[in-house]
Amino acid sequence: MSHKIAVIAGDGIGPEVLAEGVKVLNAVSKLDPEIQFDFTHFPWGCEFYHKHGKMMDDDGIEQLRQFDAIFLGAVGYPGVPDHISLWDLLLVIRKSFDQYVNVRPIKLLNGAPCPLKGKSAQDINMTFIRENTEGEYAGYGSWLYKDKPHEVVIQNAVFSRVGCERIIRYAFELGRKEKRSVTSVSKANALNYSMVFWDQIFKQVEEEYPDVKTASYLVDAAAMLMVTQPERFEIVVTSNLFGDILTDLGAAIAGGMGLAAGANLNPERQYPSMFEPIHGSAPDIAGQQIANPLATVWSASQLLAFLGYPQWAERLINAIEHLLVEGKTLTPDLKGSATTSEVGDAVVAYLQANY
Ligand code: ATP
Ligand code: MG
């Protein structure tokens, strides 16, 4: 089957790591001709912004709508305010295509560095399900008073019943399917409207899944426990802001930013879903061929799983783990001396040798 993939390589290290992701997907279709990819590249991002005064074409969303998936590198670069590069490209895609599920695997592979003493691959294996369209990132707020020096601003969080229920239900469906526990992370003691509501809905949905084990933590306690007892967590469902923060913590305990991947899913498949490494454009290392492409390969694995090829998804993870255990072909962030493209080549070589 042929799949139409929109490629937005973006800024900084985005194009370098995405090239390796595309290389790996092309290798998959070479090995398994049943799987074909039709890639279309879009030059959107901060360079486009400097030329055209906008992050993407005016009808960018319309152009993307016809694709089966979007494969994204990284957006953002010094010179373009972060709130523009983020809102006018990434967040507009997430919202327009109702990609309300952000799936971030926090899985320590064998061979990956872990800063927690005494913790191994068995202890760190969680799947974060982050709400991706509303909550604290709903984008509503106002300048209440503008007179200096007494300015006051308000940033509103939006929690809808539909929004909370569907993300919590997604987590429970996954928990049932994978026979894993579901943990809710909230903060009802301090956020006395939004998180009280979240907790209520979690309790309601929980009743429909008596076969799924559950737990609930306040976000501060969850942050501590992820470091001291990460083995407590399997599937974790949480709001947009908390998920953003905790998954960076998760990336740090599971091998670093160079290994952290994320999928933005529209589970109903009404619109395209988007797959990306969670790191940014990393201007400090851009253009040097030293960025780690393994996070991008991991997001390619999520893409393959979503398109219906779980065995291939697993093979890509096996390839990453093989490289980590072997330790010969890794980028400098993982104490290696290989280039970005050598790491991509090594993933391809593993796939070829193990198929
Ligand atoms: P953002 O503002 O979107 O967070 P950023 O440019 O600050 O983006 P981060 O993803 O937050 O980048 O990464 C912080 C640092 O981690 C980078 O500056 C870089 O040094 C390192 N880093 C991130 N991704 C990678 C990677 N794929 N390979 C190697 N190092 C990376
Ligand atoms: Mg950053």
Which CATH-level-2 architecture of the largest domain? 3-Layer(aba) Sandwich
Detail the poorly predicted runs.
none
Number of domains: 2
Arrangement of strands in the largest sheet: 2-1-3-12-11-4-5-10-8-9
Mean pLDDT: 97
Do you know the CATH topology of the largest domain? Isopropylmalate Dehydrogenase
For the sheet with most strands, the description reads: 10 strands, mixed
Find the structural class using helix and strand composition. Answer: alpha/beta
Using only C-alpha atoms, the radius of gyration works out to: 20 Å
Give the % helix. Answer: 40-55%
Number of contiguous helices: 11
Distance between the termini: 19 Å
What does this molecule look like?
The chain is an alpha/beta fold. The protein folds into two domains: 1-100 and 268-355, 3-Layer(aba) Sandwich (Isopropylmalate Dehydrogenase); 114-254, Isopropylmalate Dehydrogenase. It has eleven helices and twelve strands. The chain has helices spanning 14-31, 46-52, 60-65, 82-96, 161-178, 194-207, 219-228, 240-253, 294-306, 310-326, 340-353; strands at residues 2-10, 36-42, 69-74, 101-107, 125-131, 135-145, 152-158, 182-186, 214-218, 235-238, 261-265, 273-277. A ten-stranded mixed β-sheet has the order 2-1-3-12-11-4-5-10-8-9, sandwiched between helices. Helix 6 (194-207) links the parallel strand 8 (182-186) and strand 9 (214-218). Helix 1 (14-31) crosses helix 9. The mean pLDDT is 97. The protein binds adenosine-5'-triphosphate and magnesium ion (MG).
